[in-house]
Specification:
By secondary structure, the protein is of the alpha/beta class. It folds into 2 domains: 2-136, Response regulator (Rossmann fold, 3-Layer(aba) Sandwich); 149-307, Reverse transcriptase/Diguanylate cyclase domain (Alpha-Beta Plaits), CATH 3.30.70.270. The protein is built from 10 helices and 12 strands. Helix 8 (189-206) crosses helix 9. The longest helix is centred in the middle third of the chain and has 33 residues, at 107-139. The radius of gyration is 30 Å and the shape is elongated. The protein starts with a strand and ends in a 7-residue tail after the last strand. It binds magnesium ion. Magnesium ion is lined by residues 7-9, 51, 53-54. Residues 7-9, 51, 53-54 line the site of magnesium ion (MG).
């Protein structure tokens, strides 16, 4: 673990360094608060031991900056102080330090306190990993690995706001696996799931890198294409449609199961600001309905006249 020691007293720095290096820590040194602050901004340092009294930026001011900064990790801070009054200790901790040691410090106590900090940082790291996993679960559909509906809505709204701000186009594709119920009935749900997974793989491969693709529900998928005019979305959908038609599932008895999809395309109405996402979904849905009604396995673009 990397530990930064900030102290204007070089003999103290050397003493702490010797003790901590011996314990296997990687030590960085700063002769004052400003130098420490510069290092913290340029490198990832999770542990800081800082003196209180330093020229320029003192200990509490340095701690204050660290606490205001948006580092991706927690910084554990021990404040060193020659002061020993109860008020000073409270003040030091209130500045944001996790712990304090009074100078001259007992070396056994120093080692013990650093070990506590290390344990807390370790807990924090494991907590962050667990939260990352939870976020994954909350963001992605477990079967297909595409965004789930909730995450898709959130990200789509962000893209729509950006498109409106920048007056750039944005299109969407609502797609649906044709006769999904029949696939399930005839071949079983495992093959149905396989079809959904294959579809998701083809969508991931066929969409542009910055497009958002999510499972809308059941056998329905929704793709948001920032910057794309209707024609571009149509090309993406058309390519995807052909790709799906040419990608059968191989059953164990050598039988091939072909499946098809229908697509509805709609674009963001640049005049509208309210309920844009709902409207986009509604329009793409109407177009999809049209594709279904006119024979499936095709791409339809929403036109306002078709609304009634
Ligand atoms: Mg000092």
């Amino acid at each position: 673990m990397r530990v930064l020691i900030a102290d204007d007293d070089s003999s103290y720095r050397r003493l702490l360094e010797a003790i901590l290096r011996y314990r296997g820590y990687e030590i960085l040194e700063a002769p004052d608060g400003q130098a420490a602050w510069n290092m913290l901004q340029n490198e990832s340092i999770p542990f800081v031991i800082t003196d209180w009294m330093m020229p320029g930026l003192d200990g509490p001011a340095l701690i204050n900056r660290i606490r205001q900064a948006q580092f991706p990790h927690y910084t554990y801070i021990i404040l060193l102080t020659a002061r020993g009054g109860q008020d000073d200790i409270v003040g030091g901790l209130q500045s944001g330090a996790d712990d304090y040691l009074t100078k001259p410090c007992d070396l056994g106590e120093l080692r013990a306190r650093v070990a506590i900090g290390e344990r807390i940082l370790d807990l924090e790291m494991r907590l962050r990993e667990a939260m990352g996993k939870l976020e994954m679960l909350a963001t992605y559909d477990s079967l297909t690995g595409l965004l789930n509906r909730r995450a898709l809505i959130q990200l789509a709204n962000r893209e729509i706001a950006r498109a409106q701000r920048e007056s750039s186009p944005l299109s969407a594709i609502m797609m649906d696996l044709d006769y999904f119920k029949q696939i399930n009935d005839r071949h079983g749900h495992l093959i149905g799931d396989q079809a959904l997974m294959l579809l998701a793989t083809l969508i991931k491969r066929g969409k542009r890198e910055y497009d958002l693709a999510g499972r809308w529900g059941g056998e329905e998928f929704f793709i948001v294409l920032p910057g794309a005019m209707l024609g571009e979305a149509e090309s993406v959908a058309e390519r995807l449609r052909e790709e799906i038609n040419n990608s059968p599932i191989h059953l164990t008895n050598q039988e091939l199961v072909y499946f098809h999809s229908s697509f509805g395309i709609a674009g963001l109405d640049m005049e509208e600001n309210d309920d844009s996402f709902q409207k986009l979904v509604l329009h793409a849905d109407i177009a999809l309905y049209q594709a279904k009604n006119s024979g499936r396995d095709r791409v339809c673009i929403f036109s306002p006249e078709a609304k009634d």
